[in-house]
Amino acid sequence: MDKIVKVLQKLKNEYGTVPWNWHTRQNPFKVLIATIMSQRTRDPQTDEASKALFERFPTPEHLASAPLEEIEKLIKGVNYYKTKAVRIKEVSSIIVEKFGGRVPQDMKTLMSLPGVGRKTANCVLVYGFHKSALPVDTHVHRISNRLGWVRTKTPEETEKELKCVVPTEWIPFINDLLVKHGQTVCKPIKPSCNICVVKKFCKYNEATSQNYTQS
Asked: Do 14 and 34 share a domain, yes or no?
C-alpha cells in the first residue's frame, strides 16, 4: 500500500487534481449527460458537443422538451450521436418526471436510467457529487494492471480489487490521475516508459526492461 500511495502522490504532483476535461467539471446533471455522450468518443469531441448542447439546453427541463432533431444536430460530433440523442432526451425526461429535476445520488438508482452503466454512474458520483467513487475505464483498468496493483480481466473486477488495496482517501482521485497518465504517457500501445515518473514502481516496466536486457 505504501508503494501505491507513492505512485499516486507522484501522479498528483505531475498532473494535479483538477480534471482536464470540461465535462467532468460541471454539475451532476451535466456530468451525467456528458458522460453518456463520452462513451466511445474522445474527450475533445465530448467537451465540444457538451458545451454546444448545454448552451442551448442547460437544464433537465430544457432537454426533456427539446426537439430530438436539434439535440442530434448539437451533438453530431460524438460517435453514435443519434442513439445518444434519444438517450439524453429520455434520461432528462425521467429526471424531471420521476426525480423532480434532480439527479439521483446513489449507484442503484443511477444505473436504472437508460444508457447508464456502472462507469457512468461512478463518474456522476465522483465528479458531480464529489463522493468517494471509482470509475474504471480502459485507462484505469490497463494502468492498474500494468503497475501490478491488481490482476484482473474486467473493469468491474478492477474496481472491486482497487477498493481493497487503495487507501480510502485516494479513491476519488484514482480515475482522474490514471486517465491523465494514460492519455499522455502510459498509452495502450508503445507506452513512454522512458519518461514515466512512476516507472520504478511499475511491474510492466520491470518486465519489459528485463526482456530488453535478455535480448
From this structure: no
53 and 101 share one domain: yes
Query: Contacts from 4-10 at CB under 8 Å and sequence distance 24+?
Result: 4/149, 4/165, 4/166, 4/167, 4/170, 5/167, 5/170, 6/198, 6/201, 7/147, 7/198, 7/201, 8/166, 8/170, 8/173, 8/174, 8/177, 10/197, 10/198
- CATH classification at residue 171: 1.10.1670.10
pLDDT, one tens digit per residue, over 149-177 is 999 999 999 999 999 999 999 999 999 99
Specify whether 7 is located in the same domain as 55: no
Q: Which tens digit of pLDDT belongs to each residue from 13-45?
A: 999 999 999 999 999 999 999 999 999 999 999
Find the domain containing 141 and state its range: 2-18+135-214
Give pLDDT, residue 210.
65
